[in-house]
Every structure is written in structure tokens, then in C-alpha cells.
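Q: I'm writing a short explainer about Phosphoserine phosphatase for a general audience and would like to include a description of its predicted shape. Could you first generate the structure from this sequence?
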Amino acid sequence: MASLLELKEIFRNADAVCFDVDSTVIREEGIDELAKFCGVGDAVAEMTRRAMGGTVTFKAALTARLGLIRPSYEQVQKLISDNPPQLTPGIRELVNRLHQRGVQVFLVSGGFQSIVEHVALQLNIPTANVFANRLKFYFNGEYAGFDETQPTAESGGKGKVITHLKEQFHFKNVVMIGDGATDMEACPPADCFIGFGGNVIRKQVKEKAKWYITHFDELLKELEER
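A: Of course. Here's the predicted structure. Afterward I'll give you a sentence or two in plain language.
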């Protein structure tokens, strides 16, 4: 197992950095915001807590939560326009700095493509670098389920995305940053995991992550060390 010093070295020499989105790049959990918007906030927030703690499989939790919310296409679009996701302080500067260093930045999320692409746009991350779940709608805009073939729709999916990126781009050092159990599970194949507690602290992640931060400034400082 790599020491904290070794993890910091991997981060400083990263070819690619993959960020979780909900409660990491943005302050909120996208699915909880959508649930509140659709009037089923409390029930869905409890399911999210269980999913993030790793006590139920991600796919089971996602299926159950979406079955309660049943968001229409119009509701999803209205959520983005009326309550756009709030970027976590420091993330814009960190992504800019990584881009300046020639590091590829990816958003790997169990959230929804339409919301995550909106976030990517704000951070100058190409939509090709977004891996997230896709909602499906009938021709009249009513909810029709989600694309279960996406790797991010199941537990272990973020690791599958990283394996794919390594094979496609021959990255040597890939870093995964996130707040939840599904992010921590992605290392390996990620070469370094950084736990993030700036918006919410997941006890399991805080206890098990070798490198745990609460503000992105901590990572910016690491990059300035060289």
C-alpha cells in the first residue's frame, strides 16, 4: 500500500484526474435536488445516505430512488435552469491548474448526464470526458427509466471507467477524488484515491482513505510544491 508521501507524488505526476461530481465538484447531491424538486425529497435523501455509506448496491439504490422520483424531461430541464448546481469552492481554480499542466480531467459520476454536462461546461471540461448515468424518457417527456448499460449505473462502475481510460489513453497515473464509497472502490484501478469531505463527511471514507482533504486549496498547494 502506498504511503501518503507516495500518493502525493502520484497526484503531482498525474496524467489524468477523475472527479466524482455530487458533493465533490458540486455542493449538493443531484439526485436529492431532483427529488426535492419533484416533491419526494425526504424519502430519497435517506436512500442516498444508505447508498453512499455502501450498505446497499448502487444500482439497487438508483433504481429505487428513480422509481420514487419518476422525473419528466421537463422537470430535469427546469431544475437545471431554476436551481443550477453550485460549484464547490476551489474546484474551478484546481481544474484550471490541472489543465494548465496538461492533465486530462474527467467527471465520473453516478449522477445524471444532463446535470453533469452542465457542470462540465462551467469547468471547461469537454463532454467527451463526462461519464454519468443517462435518464430515458418517452416521446411525451415522461420518465422511462435509465440506461442500465452505463458502467456508472452499478457498484464498481467508476473503476470500470478508469480501466477503460487507462486502456484507451495509456495513462500511467490516474487519480480518483470523491466523497463516497463508490469513489474509494475505484482505487485500484486508480493509482491514488483522495477522499473529499468539503461538503459532506462520509465516516467510512474518512476512516479508510489514506489521504483525506476538506478543501481543494490543499491540492492546489500540492501542485505548487514543484
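A: For your explainer, you could say: The mean pLDDT is 85.
Q: Perfect, that's easy to follow.
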